[in-house]
UniProtKB/TrEMBL annotation:
Residues 5-76 form the DDE Tnp4 domain. It comes from the Eukaryota. This is DDE Tnp4 domain-containing protein. Keywords: Metal-binding. The lineage of its organism: Eukaryota, Fungi, Dikarya, Basidiomycota, Agaricomycotina. Pfam families: DDE_Tnp_4. InterPro entries: HARBI1_dom.
Length: 76
């Protein structure tokens, strides 16, 4: 159902109303390291990722220097 306020922003590319959620987990123990919620469904995944602490504090070593992230080609 269309949200009452700013409803068109939540209309995604698959013609549904949705929210964008980002979840960053550690694969060796499946613990959640970071998450981002609240972006409308029309927002690109790479833009929503910028709202997470992992991206905004990249110089603060949330991910160690010799570690990497695994994501699809939508992320820079």
């Amino acid at each position: 159902e269309k949200p009452h306020i700013f409803g068109e922003m939540f209309y995604d590319r698959k013609s549904r109303y949705s929210l964008n959620g980002q979840l960053i987990i550690l694969p060796h123990n499946l613990l959640v390291m970071d998450y981002g919620l609240g972006h409308p469904g029309s927002v690109h995944d790479a833009w929503a990722f910028q709202g997470t602490r992992c991206e905004s504090k990249c110089g603060k070593a949330l991910i160690a220097c010799n570690h990497w992230t695994w994501a699809d080609s939508a992320y820079p």
